[in-house]
Amino acid sequence: xxxxxxxxxxxxxxxxxxxxxxxxxxxxxxxxxxxxxxxxxxxxxxxxxxxxxxxxxxxxxxxxxxxxxxxxxxxxxxxxxxxxxxxxxxxxxxxxxxxxxxxxxxxxxxxxxxxxxxxxxxxxxxxxxxxxxxxxxxxxxxxxxxxxxxxxxxxxxxxxxxxxxxxxxxxxxxxxxxxxxxxxxxxxxxxxxxxx
Length: 196
Hints:
Elements: H1 7-27, H2 34-41, H3 45-51, H4 55-70, H5 85-100, H6 104-116, H7 118-139, H8 151-171, H9 179-195
Helix pairs in contact: 1-2, 1-4, 1-6, 5-8, 5-9, 6-7, 7-8, 8-9
Keywords: DNA-binding
Protein name: Transcriptional regulator, AcrR family
InterPro entries: Homeodomain-like_sf, HTH-type_Tx_Regulator, HTH_TetR
């Protein structure tokens, strides 16, 4: 596979990645062919295969770009002036929502591919570990509030509860759900768990 050094080659590769991102979002991984990607990118199919071994390698490249962009909407963006756990949880949930709302169509396809392919699952697990470690580091100042809990396990449950709830909020078709109310109830539930 070529790693382009010249501007034209870099532009061609970028066009293929962008076209793939659009098509995977619109039609899914299995519903998209290499020929369609090349056509959308306005490049010859030979160019496609000079940059990518196959469609799966391209999906992995698209996934890496996606997570690079998601990382810019990360827990590290939480305001350093926050001084209590309630505000921290509120900001964490808002950031998780913002990350899930970044191209939700592609996010759905990522969830499908995580279940369908072990290599992609391994990559996603790696990214999720980085996110969790970032979250854990930011919760450390509030560790003394976890008096009767095993900190690591409790934090894992809190993190996964936030992620799964945000996932449901983002992808639910139930329009009667009030986002702000759900966030408040989620914070209340987490606080009750910590203080039990």
